[in-house]
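Page 47, continued from p. 46.
Same chain as before, 93 aa.
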Amino acid sequence: MRIALLCPDLLFGSRVEEALRAAGHDVVRSVDGAEVVIVDLTADLEVPQGPKTIGFYPHVDVETRRRAEQAGFDLVVPRSRMAREAAQLVEAV
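Result:
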């Protein structure tokens, strides 16, 4: 699956990217042609139109979670869950 990962945190982003690639996914930085878009909600709350969307946030920031859910993200999870379950979450949306 082609997945766009929009995460300005290079250390965390590389961890998520590694997990996704290990599961056989093609990870890119542009939403063009992506089937799923994963967004760091601390950087952006705009919902890309078209593909399925997963947003992640710091677990203590419940307001960001609420705003992302209202904005229309398909799935919103804490950052720790994204780190542990990235490949499974992509399959779930």
